[in-house]
Amino acid sequence: ELIKKNISGKSFVLDSEVVGFDRKTKKYLPFEAISQRIRRKYEIARLVEIEKKKYPHLNIGAPSIKKRKTFCGWPFFGIFITVDGFITPCCIRMNPEVFNFGNIYQDDFNTIWNGEKYKKFRKSMIRNLPNNICDNCPN
Predict the structure, then answer these.
(1) What share of the chain is helix, strand, coil (3-state, %, to 5)?
(2) Above 70 in pLDDT, residue 130?
């Protein structure tokens, strides 16, 4: 009901996929475990970038720390709303303590969607600037 009232007939996709789920062990991961994996992945990517400079003809399959190569449509076409009403950039970055655009229980959807914080984030995506929110995104 809250979403219907705040969005007022606009079309959107609501995706409620849980990201903190380890498919191998079939268990949910605490946020600390996810953060550690991301930090390790970032450190590996940094080391690989250093090695690539030494060996430019070597093909190494590892995450990059450079600018994104693909366009991300989340800030333009999708939203992720946490159970407690926070709007976050996407289902990958769903921890509102790390980053959020606002709370649907405190402001209406249009105010958040068209707010300065969202606009600034979208501009950084258009300019393809690296940012700490999207670092190590698997997409």
Answers:
(1) 35, 10, 55
(2) no
Q: Give the Cα separation of 26 and 14 in Å (integer).
A: 24
Per-residue pLDDT reduced to its tens digit, 81-119 = 888 888 888 877 777 888 899 998 899 888 999 999 999
How many CB atoms are located within 10 Å of the residue 91 CB? Answer: 15
Euclidean distance between CA atoms 49 and 109, whole angstroms: 41
Instruction: Dump pLDDT digits (tens) for 38-80.
Output: 777 777 666 667 666 765 655 544 444 555 556 778 888 888 8
Neighbours of 74 (CB within 10 A): 21
- Whole-angstrom Cα distance, residue 71 to residue 126? 8
DSSP assigned state of 14: B
Angle at 82 between CA 78 and CA 84, to 5 degrees: 140
Distance CA 20, CA 79 (A): 18
